[in-house]
Amino acid sequence: MLSKRTLCLLLLATACSLPAPALYAADDPDASWAGKLENDQLLATRAGTRLQGARNWIVRRTADLLIIDAPEGDTHLAIMDLQAPDLESALRTVWASYQPGFARAIKLSTPAPANGGWDSAFNVDYETSPNEQKTLAAFALQKGTSWTIALIDGSDATIAKRGAALNQMVRSAAPLAYQKESFAGRKPQHMDAARIAKLRSFLEEAMELIGIPGAGFAILDQNQVVYEGGVGVRKLGQRQPVDAHTRFLAASNTKGMSTLLLSTLVDEGRLRWNQPVQQVFPGFQLGSADVSAKVEIRHLVCACTGLPRQDFEWIFEYRNATPDTSLKLLSSNSPTSGFGEVFQYNNLMASAAGYIGGHLVYPELPLGAAYDKAMQKRIFDPLGMQDSTFDMARGQHGNYARPHGLDRHNKVAELPMTLNYAVVPHRPAGGVWTSAHDLIRYVQLEANQGKLPDGRQLVSAENLLMRRQPQVSTGNQTFYGMGLSVDSSMGVDVVHHGGSLFGYKSDWYLLPDAGIGAVLLTNSEQGRVLLGAFQRRLLELVYDGEETAMKNLRTRVAAEKAEFSKNYQSYILPAQDASRLARRYHSKELGELKVRHQGKELIFDFGEWQSGMASRKNADGTLTYLTLDQGFAPDPFEFTVTQHQGRRALVTHDGQHDYFFVEQK
Questions:
Q1: Are 65 and 34 in contact (CB under 8 A)?
Q2: Does the structure show a pLDDT above 50 at 638?
């Protein structure tokens, strides 16, 4: 549920740089040439800017531009080096070369973190209308009077599918002579009291800057827990502090725990990582029978099968959902890319992995109960994770953090828990409540390669480490394993995984070669901008790195505030032209929508949740309604007025799917 603007921010937020192997080039470097990249390959512009080209993309050159085309042919990255007095002049020149007559208005231009040898960087987003399903953006890098401009011209569907590859290429742009900072070969420093104090101080400053009410965090050094505690409060406006045992929804951090459960079953010989899923669970079925038969156990959690995200179904329709219907949803999900071709995150596949694992342990129980019991007995109890649970009632009892986010006035406010109940039927992918105290014990097991503090081997090192084996690339020197991510871009491995639910953002981090780890749990939507900065600050402290974490964080926070302000300027309140709407709509995938008024405010009621709405006039004359509540800022759900099969309708998009709400009489 990313807006195009946020997608671009995520893709382009940080420029990095590359080592210098041989360049991919024609024999005559001045000649135009074309070619498909058979592997990820270092490319260079004529002026020497380097970037990491992505496998299967097609490279061509014009007199001025290096153009890299997606395999689908509808998405292009065009890069040009030039001299220009300012950003506006540079953009005009590059667009004139790439697309003469280009006349789109700039929607928003904001500074971005400038790393990788650049003096400054800017994200630029251009006006488009929802029905175009198109992204037009630019990433501008400046060094002195020289500019490198990367234009993004693509379909939302392809960008949603190939976002990791696009991310890799744009983020890797670096000047020819730049030598990247690397921690390879550096001696790691202990996270002693002084360094822990610095990390806590960073966290306190960052939370105040961003507006995060509370966070739990813990530190591991030499595979031993050396700190656990909290910063801030559990609920805005109250004094109850976050401590080591405060529970947060850890969302997708559940995935690695679910694959740990699978590892115990592989140890026992009840599963093989390369075993077809249908051999152990015959009811497993995707939208393609051929692909269903090919899917192995490891593929359930590798984000490498080509299945796209299918989150709208479970966000909109969860009241009567169960673990069985979670598995059934997969039967409507078909791949949009080949096995291992691109990174496509799919929560339903990870949900299936956990339920199948639980079923093998307790086949006599319903799927949900079997999974919950298997996780309790095999993971939580041995690790002493007494705060952790999948029970929503228990999770919200006593010492727990409330969710927060931005309200429609860009103010931090407590959010309703309503939408977080959507994860319950799919909880192996993201439903765990846990604390800093508990989550660091999980990281400790990862650090000790499956061994408990008392010396017992909970899971074999072999099968624990199999989860870190590369399954699909997620960028330059980063990849996804089985419910885990590994980032080697700074010369040392960082094993981690993020988590995101409504009002909760989290991550855990392990530097396996240093024996150092950390966990961070936040009770805010805005926690998402902190997770990467926290990882960077941890690396800075362990390896005495250049201190860029806070500087880059300030730049990103300023950009997000500018984005919210710009978006809000386009909103019409109260929403206009509501008389054009039907009273009731139905979507075969997303269920019922009732339209009603509460005073002057327009309300869209989806049954499970509801929101006040704004309206926006689009450049193509269409009208869009946008959600204002439930913590969607700055990325609201958008519903554009249209016709479908001769009836009034509203359409919303998730990148690779169109969902029509059609008028009901």
A1: no
A2: yes
Beta bridge partners of residue 623, listed in sequence order: 617
pLDDT of amino acid 9: 33
CB contact at 8 A, 70 and 158: yes
Query: pLDDT tens across 256-312, in order?
Result: 999 999 999 999 999 999 999 999 999 999 998 888 999 999 999 999 999 999 999
Element (H, E) at 291: helix 289-294
Residue 609: name the closest of 590, 625, 581 by CA. 590
SS3 443: helix
Q: How many residues does the chain have?
A: 665
Parallel, antiparallel or unpaired: strands 106-112 and 120-126? antiparallel
Distance separating alpha carbons of residues 330 and 587, to the nearest angstrom: 18
**Is the CB of residue 252 less than 8 Å from the CB of residue 499?**
yes
The neighbour count for residue 611, using CB atoms within 10 Å, is 21
Mapped onto helix, strand or coil, the DSSP state of residue 91 is helix
Amino acid at 620: D
What three-state secondary structure class fits 85? Answer: coil
Query: DSSP states of 494-535 as a string?
Result: EEEEEEEETTEEEEEEEETTTTEEEEEEESSGGGHHHHHHHH
Nearest Cα residue to 231 out of 508, 595, 618, 527: 527
Q: Could you give the 3-state DSSP secondary structure of residue 30?
A: coil
Rg of the Cα atoms in the chain = 24
Nearest to 231 by CA among 220, 218, 245, 242: 242
Q: What is the mean pLDDT of residues 237-250?
A: 97
Inter-residue contact 296 to 305 (CB < 8 Å): no
pLDDT digits (tens, 9 = 90+) for 387-421: 999 999 999 999 999 999 999 888 999 999 999 99
Local structure of 118: helix, strand or coil: coil
* 400 in Cβ contact with 208 (< 8 Å): no
CB 641 within 8 A of CB 632: no
Report whether 331 contacts 442 (CB < 8 A): no
Kind plus residue range of the DSSP H or E element containing 260:
helix 254-267
Contact 489, 479 (CB under 8 A): no
Asked if residue 229 has pLDDT above 60, the reply is yes
Q: What is the pLDDT of residues 300-346, one digit of tens each?
A: 999 999 999 999 999 999 999 999 999 999 998 888 888 889 999 99
What's the rounded Cα separation, in Å, for the pair 163 and 2?
Answer: 12
- Nearest 10 degrees: CA dihedral of 551, 557, 559, 564? -170
* Torsion from C-alpha of 214, 220, 224, 225, nearest 10 degrees: -10
Alpha-carbon dihedral sign for residues 244, 250, 254, 256:
negative
**Which residues lie closer than 8 Å to 603 by C-beta, 6 or more apart?**
595, 596, 597, 610, 611, 612, 613
**369 touches 362 (CB < 8 A):** yes
Place of tokens 């480490």: 465
DSSP code for 324: H
Cα distance between residue 304 and residue 299, in whole Å: 7
Distance CA 15, CA 118 (A): 8
Could you tell me the two tokens for 495?
């094993």
Please tell me the distance from the alpha carbon of residue 51 to that of residue 439, in angstroms, as a whole number: 37
- Bridge partners (DSSP) of residue 234 are none
DSSP letters for 376-413? IIIIIHHHT-TT-BS-HHHHTSSSBPPPEEE-TTS-EE
Look up tokens 């890799």; give the residue: 168
Phi/psi-derived region of residue 550, left when phi > 0, alpha when psi is between -120 and 50, beta in every other case: alpha
- Between the alpha carbon of residue 340 and those of residues 175, 305, 481, 494, the distances in Å are 31, 6, 11, 22
